[in-house]
């Protein structure tokens, strides 16, 4: 349970975990998902490669299963995502090699209108554009990820105009949905969020229906925590935007036994709570979403030599992180 209108959510992969969901006989995972969360984000089901695998083929099975689950349990849904450099299907990558900007625009517009239109009215927030800005350590430094994104690359003369159009198409198809920019390494005030702040101002000045800024919240105990998350949220809120923590998890390097230390477990709880506190302190924060709630389904071990990132173990035992979040929500 959350105070005011703050939604507490989890990512879930409908194709993997919800297809064939039987409300009379839910799995243990499904029971927890229904009982603990008011909002769901499709971890993969609405990404291009999953939902639009061939030029004339849309596959809505996973996304439909997620929408049906949410509806059956009175949950909200955050859409994810329409414009991203990653997880694009092979046909997009191939076609992009010869696209003119007009061709890229047409393909993107058709996709956005089809996907957003299908779920219009049922998605309270959309991560319209994901990970648009490079990191300091990327070649070229902090700037738009134009070359890596097939759509922006085709329209490299004015990528911001295309970004604006994606927001406009989304808004036309679903006028009630709150439309977000979303990225990682975007919690605190830093060079990357400075770039987003400038981009948000530019889009708003152009009359683009941009409504929110999402910090993903993928943290690692290998690194320090930037305490300026509340300050960062406040500056976006001052632009008139909503803010959200959209993909929270806190991973860590594990010992040879594969287990975290007591100190790591406590520090993980503290980091989760700091992200939630920023959300509780800033009235414009609309949602706090964890990127999956159980270690057995976490994306982390596939990508990093780290783990223990979520708020429950593989056996669904609640970690101190879970308890601390619940306490903070109850106290708020
Ligand atoms: O494409 C095949 C699919 O056809 C097949 O059904 C499936 C069977 O296992 O494998 C598929 O690929 C997987 C893909 O997700 C599905 O789209 C990959 O193996 C898997 O590695 C991939 O990982 C996802 C990753 O994004 C890349 O899209 C993770 O599950 C997901 O947690 C992660 O989420 C991202 C956010 O979207 C954006 N922010 C960062 C976050 C973590 O990387």
TrEMBL record:
Q: Which domain of life is it from?
A: Bacteria
Q: Where is the GH10 domain?
A: 22-328
A Pfam family:
Glyco_hydro_10
* InterPro entries tied to this protein: GH, GH10, GH10_dom, TAT_signal
Annotated catalysed reactions: Endohydrolysis of (1->4)-beta-D-xylosidic linkages in xylans
Keyword annotations for this protein, in alphabetical order, are:
Carbohydrate metabolism, Glycosidase, Hydrolase, Polysaccharide degradation, Signal, Xylan degradation
Stated EC number for the protein is: 3.2.1.8
Q: Which family does it belong to?
A: Belongs to the glycosyl hydrolase 10 (cellulase F) family.
**Name of the molecule in the record:** Beta-xylanase
Annotated source species: Isoptericola haloaureus
